[in-house]
Amino acid sequence: MSTHLLISGVPACGKTFFGDWLRDTRGFVHINMEDWHNTAPKQFWDQTWKQSTRPFADQITRLHPRVVITVGYPVGMLATMMSFDQHGITPWWFDGNMATARREWERREGRSSANIQQFADIESNRTQIISAYGSHVITTLESDAKRMGCEDIANRLRIPAYPL
Fold first, then answer.
1. What is the CATH number of the domain that holds 129?
2. Neighbours of 119 (CB within 10 A)
3. What is the pLDDT of residues 26-35, one digit of tens each?
4. What angle do CA 98, 103, 105 make, to 5 degrees?
5. What range does the domain containing 67 cover?
6. What band does 42 get if pLDDT is binned at 50, 70 and 90?
7. Terminal CA-to-CA distance of the chain, rounded, Å?
């Protein structure tokens, strides 16, 4: 069974942590687009997905039967993110309490002001984002900083245990 996921969402809501967990416990290849600066896959992503998601999606679906891509919310690219579903990669949105997420994000070292702008962009587009992702929205971070566990997220995404 093939499972290809594209997880975007609010910063500090556990996208990368969950991707790593899927790699470590469920046999996924985890592609963290935020860690791939100036690499060939990142350049391929940047060059192809803005014109058409199909070439990138084709590469991903051939790469491995289980792939999770984690990426911060690309402002202005909502329609593009949703188009991956047509090519066998299911988009999911990791949502959370914005004030709590911002505090968590600011505690991390090396975070740029561009990422802080991302919070404002998400807030101003929140209605559209939630509407577009529909049933593929998961609240992973509550106002009390409680996080949804990876096992619970995997169950919500209907990801079978590994090996199959």
1. 3.40.50.300
2. 19
3. 999 998 887 7
4. 90
5. 3-156
6. low
7. 8
